[in-house]
Fold this sequence. Notes:
33% of the residues lie in helices and 20% in strands. The chain has helices spanning 56-65, 146-152, 157-183, 186-200, 216-223, 227-239, 255-262, and strands at residues 33-34, 69-71, 76-78, 86-92, 95-100, 106-112, 117-119, 132-135, 139-145, 210-212, 243-246, 249-252. A five-stranded antiparallel beta sheet has the order 1-2-9-4-7. Strands 3-8-5-6 form a four-stranded antiparallel beta sheet. Helix 4 (186-200) crosses helix 7 (255-262) and helix 5 crosses helix 6. It starts with 32 loop residues before the first strand and ends with a helix. The relative contact order is 0.17.
Amino acid sequence: MTTPGLNAACSTTIVSAASKTTTLWAPHEREEEPLAETGEPFSCLNAVELFADLTAEEMDTLDRMAPPRLFHSGELVFSQSQPTKALFILKAGRIRIFRVAEDGKTLTIAILEPGAVFGEMLLVGMQMYDNYAEALEESTVCQLSAAEVENHFLSNPKLAVRISRLLGEQVARLEERLTDMALRPLSARTAATLLTLADAAPRNRFTHSVAVKLTHEQLAGLLGATREATSKTMSDFAATKLIRQGRGRIIIEDAEGLRRTSRTTF
């Protein structure tokens, strides 16, 4: 529910499935590509708050253990059929964590931005064995094994405290999300979700506008709603100038108006 180093802190906002049945997506089979050399120092860890207490020597050791890999849009970082017990750090790009139900419905758990930590890591309380992780765009990811996490992270008291705090925040976000789905209308949930995604999205350097890169179907998966209901809500937002819609992106026009809408209860 709801941290550039590669493979990042899981802001996992657990959500329900989109009600509409979709065709089960199957990625192309391919090996992950190593990141091309740029001649510049590359660290998977030094921009992730979780690892801020590591020394330069510890950073260097872990970076050698976890070289960055490049995933193209639509490719899997891990899947239910190929589970990986590892901690991933997202350095660049975006990753979608989701599940597929037996009837083909897709349940989006989270859309991760650079700095997020995710993966199957029982040692730190993360369980991903029923999930898929898909690159929504070209993404750079690092991977640390369970042994590496245990040897280098859990033995560090400051890191152990940070991990405990991270897991507590995830549980709190999950409880808040479940309450929202039970008590708040779709328009309020949509507005709140757009604001949360906008907080993590980069700003246009010229116009300072914020664009959330998301399709209506992906947004519906986060909201636990049908694509039709989500598209209707988005059309209403556009008509009242709260947002402007583009191809695969949503531009926030009136953040304060969205904030007011997010607080409605009927």
